């Protein structure tokens, strides 16, 4: 398919080749290790090479700190990575970015990548419509009618204060500024829909459920309403703006190319050592002066500080001494709800480029949209499923193809996907909390333990928690803390 290195992760299906495990990615690092000895003493060990870990590593190494990056996968990016197949980047996880997301946009500016932003949408082709298949039937509508339906429905959903959420959450980057918002902390999406059911048409209810489940990857019963309210506020309390920020603008070069910029800058400092295919088994921080990190293959590394970026759903897999705070352990065992299924399809009809659709609740994929054009001239579509009516795409490729074709007649040329539910280093996609979970556990998840800091988009501060933006923010903050404690970096000039 390509001369780019192949990751052990991900799946590719084509009619002539069947289902194959492992797909090419620019994010695969070769050679996988640069560290030559476990006797070395590092300033900092960073666990995990997602955007949080990459940002922290870049900021630490450019400040002069000797840093060791440990990653269980064979690639960078964590829950955000692209597979480059026949000249086209298929995004396996995090994809879309926007200038409303300040941390990610700053990094795009830093690396001269603003011109890499492209539209996922293109409404200039013949099949320029939205297909809507629900328990009430199947029909098509214009994209203008689609936006009007979803905007009207979402306004009803979030309008808890008579001001479409603006009063109860005026500062999405300080979500609890108005303490009245806490009254919604235990509310599920299903609970909120029940509150307004008398004011919803069947179309509006289906619009709310399908869109929110696209966001949460869970079920209406286990997905927290508060998480959606924060997304809505970060999207300027407007459906169209929220849509622009979460599913319209992406990088034509692919996210793995963006992630490489962080890694290469760190590498150029000569302060970076790294080891991929290296899962961490234990972190011992019984003293503030020294932390010992033991890998699954028995190697041991030492540092003055550790930044652990393991996602919430797998944090419990690392043995910490002293043990994880009880709240951290409970949260990791409980897990967030997002079991998103994301399937890419290359469709032979180029006129499908202007299509999008919903099939809910009777299909195993909920939302689909045309997302680009491949170099061969075919249409690239991406489909999302959730924990409600869940599917493991790699278990039954015929069932997966059937779910894709439920949206519209499609001649499928290839499928590409990653199974996040089975991923041992994630056990789910981006974070979405259960009702009550955020308020109960968030502070504890952010809390350090001795010389170990915990940084991840799953508990990052700010409106764009669970996004690439939140990951970069969390890595930036952790690195700044460590730099201050180890007394490196710019010092104030006293006049």
Automatic annotation (TrEMBL):
UniProt key word Oxidoreductase: yes
Keyword Aminoacyl-tRNA synthetase attached: no
Domain of life of the native organism: Eukaryota
UniProt: FAD binding residues: 52, 280
Any one GO molecular function term: monoamine oxidase activity
Reaction(s) catalysed by this chain's protein: a secondary aliphatic amine + O2 + H2O = a primary amine + an aldehyde + H2O2
InterPro entries named among the record's database cross-references: Amino_oxidase, FAD/NAD-bd_sf, Flavin_amine_oxidase, Flavin_MAO
Pfam family, one: Amino_oxidase
SUPFAM superfamilies: FAD/NAD(P)-binding domain
Assigned keywords, A-Z: FAD, Flavoprotein, Oxidoreductase
Amino-acid positions noted as binding substrate in the UniProt annotation, renumbered to this chain: 384
Domain Amine oxidase: 52-479
Cofactor(s) listed in the protein's UniProt record: FAD
EC annotation from Swiss-Prot or TrEMBL: 1.4.3.-
Family matches, as PANTHER family: AMINE OXIDASE, AMINE OXIDASE [FLAVIN-CONTAINING] B
Similarity annotation: Belongs to the flavin monoamine oxidase family.
Name the UniProt record assigns to this protein: Amine oxidase
Species of provenance: Exophiala spinifera
Source taxonomy: Eukaryota, Fungi, Dikarya, Ascomycota, Pezizomycotina
């Amino acid at each position: 398919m390509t001369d780019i290195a192949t990751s052990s992760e991900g799946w590719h299906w084509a009619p002539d080749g069947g289902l194959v495990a492992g797909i090419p990615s620019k994010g695969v690092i070769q050679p996988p290790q640069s560290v030559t000895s476990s006797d070395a003493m590092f300033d900092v060990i960073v666990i995990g090479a997602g955007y949080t870990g990459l940002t922290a590593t870049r900021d630490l190494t450019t400040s002069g700190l000797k840093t060791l990056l440990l990653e269980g996968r064979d690639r960078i990016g964590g829950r955000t990575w692209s597979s480059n197949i026949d000249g086209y980047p298929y995004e396996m996880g995090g994809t879309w970015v926007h200038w409303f997301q300040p941390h990610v946009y700053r990094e795009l500016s830093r690396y001269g990548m603003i011109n890499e932003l492209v539209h996922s949408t293109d409404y200039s082709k013949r099949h320029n419509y939205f297909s809507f298949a629900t328990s009430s039937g199947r029909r098509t509508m214009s994209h203008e009618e689609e936006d009007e339906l979803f905007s009207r429905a979402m306004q009803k959903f979030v309008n808890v204060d008579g001001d479409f959420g603006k009063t109860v959450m005026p500062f999405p980057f300080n979500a609890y500024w108005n303490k009245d918002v806490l009254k919604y902390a235990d509310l599920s999406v299903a609970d909120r829909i029940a509150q307004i059911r008398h004011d919803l048409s069947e179309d509006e209810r289906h619009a709310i459920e399908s869109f929110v489940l696209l966001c949460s990857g869970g079920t209406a019963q286990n997905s927290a309403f508060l998480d959606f309210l924060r997304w809505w506020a970060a999207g300027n309390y407007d459906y169209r703006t929220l849509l622009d920020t979460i599913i319209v603008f992406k990088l034509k070069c692919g996210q793995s190319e963006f992630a490489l910029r962080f890694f290469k800058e760190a590498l150029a400092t000569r302060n970076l050592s790294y080891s991929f295919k290296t899962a961490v088994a234990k972190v011992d921080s019984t003293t503030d002066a020294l932390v010992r990190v033991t890998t699954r293959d028995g190697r041991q590394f030492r540092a003055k500080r550790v930044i652990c970026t393991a996602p919430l759903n797998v944090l419990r897999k690392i043995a910490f001494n002293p043990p994880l705070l009880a709240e951290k352990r409970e949260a990791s065992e409980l897990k967030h709800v997002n079991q998103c299924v994301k399937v890419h399809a290359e469709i032979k009809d180029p006129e499908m480029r202007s299509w999008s659709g919903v099939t809910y609740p009777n299909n195993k994929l909920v939302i689909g949209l045309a997302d680009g054009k491949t170099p061969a001239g075919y249409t690239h579509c991406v489909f999302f499923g959730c924990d409600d009516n869940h599917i493991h795409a790699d278990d039954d490729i015929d069932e997966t193809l059937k779910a894709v074709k439920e949206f519209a007649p499609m001649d499928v040329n290839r499928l590409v996907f990653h199974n996040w539910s089975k991923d041992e280093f994630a056990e789910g996609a981006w974070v979405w909390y259960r009702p009550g979970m955020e308020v109960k556990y968030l502070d504890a998840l952010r809390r350090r333990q001795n010389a170990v800091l915990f940084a991840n988009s799953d508990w990052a501060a700010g409106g764009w928690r669970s996004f690439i933006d939140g990951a970069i923010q969390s890595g930036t903050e952790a690195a700044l803390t460590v730099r201050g404690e180890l007394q490196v970096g710019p010092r104030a000039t006293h006049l």
